[in-house]
């Protein structure tokens, strides 16, 4: 059994995604799933029902008539949006701070993941004109492996945080101390969660530097968003440098006018997301 798998097994003994999220992930992966099947799963989670109805009836959508049925709400906001909202809610509780550490903070990590997810959605839709739901989900999940390491191997993880500031990158230190890294751990978890293959691969490769990479791919968009949000100091650790594939840096330079506007709008979009996706700071 791989080191990453052993760490995941220990994590699963004490912390796991709610059953409703796992069920929704499987329904999303099945192209034959119906709204009725989604409705049957959602009914099991009163908190999710309340958030769904509050969202669809919020001023953001501006509907003339109130929506009070789960089926209509799901049909209106879409199955993937619902799935993303459920995962975001579930992860927020897992990211809650256990105690304050000098270098690492779960709250800071949560804000990093929220920033990357929102920025990724903006990049997908504004720069490439493609649907941003999958990259949003990938952004929320991309560093989940860090939470697993911090909970299962806390002492080693804190040493990693210290060493990567003074000697090398986090991934290099993870491999040296743990024999794996958060990218591999996150990748294996998304296999268990039945996430789309492109999301699995992007989580596995989001710190891999490629000589050739398509900017419009999910991996490309996640790397671009990590770089952009890093410029706004939304990094996993304070002062962390963000390195991305060279072709993506060239792409950003060639399209800087569009990216400059996106960067200006990002703080406002993050503020809006507090109501839409629950991307506020962990309490």
Strand content: under 5%
Main pleated sheet = none
Mean pLDDT: 86
Helix fraction, binned, reads: 55-70%
Note the overall shape: globular
CATH homologous superfamily assignment of the largest domain: Hypothetical protein af1432
Spans of 5+ residues with little confidence (pLDDT < 50)?
277-283
Structural class: mainly alpha
CATH class value of the largest domain:
Mainly Alpha
Tally of individual helices? 16
DSSP E strands, number:
0
CATH architectural label of the largest domain = Orthogonal Bundle
Cα distance spanning the termini = 36 Å
What is the CATH topology assignment of the largest domain? Hypothetical protein af1432
Summed up, the domain count is: 2
Rounded to an integer in angstroms, the radius of gyration calculated over CA atoms is 19 Å
Order of helices and strands: HHHHHHHHHHHHHHHH
